[in-house]
Amino acid sequence: MNVESRLSFASDYMEGAHPELLRRLAETNTCKSAGYGLDTYSESAREKIRAACCAPEADVFFLSGGTQTNAVLIDALLRPYQGVIAAETGHISVHEAGAIEFGGHKVLTLPQYEGKLRAEDIANCVRTWREDANRDHMVMPGMVYLSHPTEFGTLYSLAELTEISRICRENHLPLYLDGARLAYALACPENDVTLPNLAALCDAFYIGGTKCGALFGEAAVIPRHDDIPHLFTIIKQHGALLAKGFVAGVQFDALFTDALYFSIGKTAIDAADRIRAALHERGYRLAWDAPTNQIFVVLEQKQAAALSEKIEMSFWENVDETHTIMRIVTSWATQAEEVDRLIACL
Amino acid sequence: MNVESRLSFASDYMEGAHPELLRRLAETNTCKSAGYGLDTYSESAREKIRAACCAPEADVFFLSGGTQTNAVLIDALLRPYQGVIAAETGHISVHEAGAIEFGGHKVLTLPQYEGKLRAEDIANCVRTWREDANRDHMVMPGMVYLSHPTEFGTLYSLAELTEISRICRENHLPLYLDGARLAYALACPENDVTLPNLAALCDAFYIGGTKCGALFGEAAVIPRHDDIPHLFTIIKQHGALLAKGFVAGVQFDALFTDALYFSIGKTAIDAADRIRAALHERGYRLAWDAPTNQIFVVLEQKQAAALSEKIEMSFWENVDETHTIMRIVTSWATQAEEVDRLIACL
Amino acid sequence: MNVESRLSFASDYMEGAHPELLRRLAETNTCKSAGYGLDTYSESAREKIRAACCAPEADVFFLSGGTQTNAVLIDALLRPYQGVIAAETGHISVHEAGAIEFGGHKVLTLPQYEGKLRAEDIANCVRTWREDANRDHMVMPGMVYLSHPTEFGTLYSLAELTEISRICRENHLPLYLDGARLAYALACPENDVTLPNLAALCDAFYIGGTKCGALFGEAAVIPRHDDIPHLFTIIKQHGALLAKGFVAGVQFDALFTDALYFSIGKTAIDAADRIRAALHERGYRLAWDAPTNQIFVVLEQKQAAALSEKIEMSFWENVDETHTIMRIVTSWATQAEEVDRLIACL
Amino acid sequence: MNVESRLSFASDYMEGAHPELLRRLAETNTCKSAGYGLDTYSESAREKIRAACCAPEADVFFLSGGTQTNAVLIDALLRPYQGVIAAETGHISVHEAGAIEFGGHKVLTLPQYEGKLRAEDIANCVRTWREDANRDHMVMPGMVYLSHPTEFGTLYSLAELTEISRICRENHLPLYLDGARLAYALACPENDVTLPNLAALCDAFYIGGTKCGALFGEAAVIPRHDDIPHLFTIIKQHGALLAKGFVAGVQFDALFTDALYFSIGKTAIDAADRIRAALHERGYRLAWDAPTNQIFVVLEQKQAAALSEKIEMSFWENVDETHTIMRIVTSWATQAEEVDRLIACL
């Protein structure tokens, strides 16, 4: 058994699937489906995603995880001699074990501001490269990678994203957005970025499933049909083609039925808001303002140790000799009662 | 809905999971688990697999698909300047979209005999390379790839596998076995190769889940602990690390509870045997003798077209101007009634 | 000292440079030049090559060796998921230590006929791929690699090359030609393929320097300007950009002054013709008919051993238990007196 | 002709070879040599390099350029999942067009201090990685890259290099040193690092030829025999094996005859010292202290423009709105008279 008396707020991928997804998997379990995503469930999911994105021509592929989706799409969007611009704290920069470099590409890192890139830094990076007399000896910036929410739980505003997209298009840089936790952005009152916005502003993005209610799976969306030719083969070449693509298809079909994907993050945001309020009330300091399902709290190390005995959090980083940032994460599966217990521990 | 009036014997990955696996997924759905395969279900599955393989020290990792597992393990077993020996019809040679070459490695193809490699051909390949004055300008044979059952549905005998293993060890070539359909070999009376044999004779192999009763998942087994250092990171680098590793872990735990993995293929073999007997009785010609869940039947093209209206099979290849080989595949999910109907169509 | 009493006909890269190239290198040695091929000698060489090819818009780059040039241009011409079609005996298939696979690409081998590809085999290979229901799981044929002369010393006729080019264009496959020994083709009476033909029929090719009178260096020619964007950077990325590009530039400038490149192979062909005549007269058997500077003679093994004591040849392959093919190679540097001595040994 | 009335101090790779090297190339031009570096000149050069390094067992290979040598050796020293630690201004970090990433490896950048790495930063980088709970999701530091002189013209002291080597060994990190301009370090009074020191402290390094008197060529030294197995094949796989290896061999043989390599940089250092003294005298400001053949001078932009009309320098970077760093480079080929003229311009 996996039960712990200790509360766990360590991540948003600790439970299986949203009951509705599980129900649909059970219901369709013995139906015979075509392989490799060519089945009717996947097609239905694709149609619903296209509709939700107001992108009727979009290509949609289902992959099994985030690093994989990033590696495949970045490799597919870049020419071999190009690199991808990302925040120095971006997932691809730090926590993907060199998956981008495995595909032959440099990650060109820029400063981050609470996990976000700034449009002017992107413009400046490209200009600096273009004006460098040695630019032909350097890696050419070939695209931009963002995440929304970011690794810091923060959100781009529609204005920021629009400006980044404008800079990207001006410079012929495809814009790619990692939506591993997209449902938590969509459920957030502060968020003003919609799926149709993403489809209009990005050249590719993915709608996260693994952290947002699915057993596994990410939906890669290429808003303009055939913008990435032969992507099916590229996915296979990367070892990322699911033989039983319908297992992801059924889940995404359920996530986009009755707008489940738009409501599934609400529980997590409500829980996080309650925790944030309690932390604030009790005088805890947050490392930065993040409105989504991740809370970054600055703790004295003793306090951190004491709290960790009761609540599993994840270590983020040491601030100084005596202080540490710990991360508390809620999810679609977080129970109100768990939040009560957590607050009682503070 | 995905129901077809036409019978489908096109592949063994058309249904979801064996009911027992689905039951366990539902049962454990809300338990909180650690990520990345560090959970208790995965650990339990690992212990059961070690026991089944008589390999108490084995490292076991759960990946999501076969091409991915092949690409990861081959890349991990080879030095960058080495290639992998495989049958010219091997899955990695033909049907993985260049996933091995994507990792920088050449596939060194040898002739196949009903899908199988011969030990003497392997020995000869290495000797030829070694004796070639230009060998340092050539790709060094670095390991051997087999599949069991093969792409042709055929089986290695224990004697054959032992001899191949001997040749491999004599030549310091790691031996790797692709067990995408291993359950169907294990359920086959003709098969005399056991999991402990594989653990003793191979340096790495995988126990197929996707085609053998799981929603997805393959269990990579490295019989000697730490024979491939940092494999966790290599898996991540290839984009193959599952955040919710426990979803695969729960399924493999179920597959190795009450010896389910050893019985799950029985339905498929019984069904295939009934079909083979009926084909024989009605005078159909089989392309070659394959005792597992794949049947390769030679049909006149008209006959093939007529039969295909009633039964979905998969096209294998044209034999001559007027004859075609079609593949009929059974699985753990094949119903006796489907077999009756298929036989009635013959 | 490197002198041997034994004659050496082992290869065509045993001496330094043609005296005229050495003279020009000495003459320009202390002139200051720009780096990376941006110097005036390189530009002059480029202009002369463009003129010789009737390709006034051609891009020309100087690289240091053949395998390098093949690896760079093939990687530049292919999309990452594509492979290169080559003869099973092509240099890239066998003798480049996996340099093409290092760049992530599969070599798709076809049968050879005295070292040559046949247009119909190429057409068939593409058609087979296109018609295969599993083609999206396979490596897509992306270009064609030829060598002229081939590894067997044979030549494509203009008719053959025109037909191959036609098939390639029909199928949108760039055609690339490896001209490591091109000077020996051009000096051959049997040859009817000119540099303007190559520029018209190929999408890229290289004019060999290393084996044709230079200390080192190959001139990569892309007949249509900017057909391969950012090739300078791709060359750098492959570690193939020469800081002192002018050293290659000076040499190619000399090779294309007073048509030296068109006459430099004549000595080799005359010498090879004399040797072929003598072999024929004395009843030796040639393995196949090759009109260029490589002669492939079938010898009894005892005879081969005896002859090898006096003449260094290169071993090609064993024909049967008792016979061996040995290769005799002449070059621009072969002396008439060496040929006399060789003939006297026969 | 390439003569310019303008003085050129733009780089140290503007001329051909030292006269003695050219003389030896001419002298040996018609001798027949074995290919691929298996000739007697290369063997003689190897012996002399081993002696100069007090490394009698060293493996020595001759490659054609610096980026190539870096890419080959780094790829050979790392396991595929590892990255290379380098200064953020290191040549491999910025100016090799992603050649390291092309081989699948991340460059892990550390701060630079006048172009140099600090031992404590290396130790800290490894410790941070080791202590990070997510280290298995990150690129493992696998080796260290230094250059001596650095890109800033600065030198490591023997004490600094010894400390870095100690840290590397403590952490099982191979230490690799890029000696593109090594002759200029060796000719520098401030330098206390000898070739035997490099052989004792590094796991691999290269002795630069291209910038130090050769037409082209770098000598890769692996102090302990077979520390990098199959390096010949790895070189070939990277397209870096010279067919006429003897052309590099003859040049390195000459460079290591009568200690030419140890004196060849003296002219450059004397010239640079005269220029530095003159700059100082006339009140120019140097960007930092660099004792080798590169001088980095801070100029007002107008001043820079004016000076550039008379002297070709290379642009380094803008310091602020009105100031620029320009680089002045001397070489083994710099004439006293050129220095006089340059000084007269100041």
Topology at a glance:
The structure is a homotetramer of 346-residue chains.
Chain A: E1 7-8, H1 19-27, H2 40-53, E2 59-63, H3 66-77, E3 82-87, H4 91-94, H5 99-102, E4 107-110, H6 119-131, E5 140-147, H7 158-170, E6 175-179, H8 182-186, H9 195-201, E7 204-208, E8 218-222, H10 231-237, H11 245-255, H12 260-263, H13 266-281, E9 285-286, E10 294-300, H14 301-310, E11 311-312, E12 314-318, E13 323-329, H15 336-345
Parallel strand pairs in A: 1-11, 3-4, 3-5, 5-6, 6-7
Antiparallel strand pairs in A: 2-8, 7-8, 9-10, 10-13, 12-13
Helix pairs in contact in A: 1-11, 2-11, 6-7, 13-15
Describe this structure in words.
Four copies of one chain form a homotetramer. With 346 residues, chain A is α/β, with parallel strands linked by helices. Chain A has two domains: 90 residues, Aspartate Aminotransferase, domain 1; 242 residues, Type I PLP-dependent aspartate aminotransferase-like (Major domain) (Aspartate Aminotransferase, domain 2). A seven-stranded mixed beta sheet of chain A has the order 2-8-7-6-5-3-4, with helices on both faces. Chain A has a four-stranded antiparallel beta sheet with strand order 9-10-13-12. In chain A, helix 13 runs parallel beside helix 15. The longest helix of chain A has 16 residues. The first copy, chain A, is globular, with a radius of gyration of 20 Å. Chains in contact: A-B, A-C, A-D, B-C, B-D, C-D. The interface between A and C is medium-sized, with 16 and 16 residues.
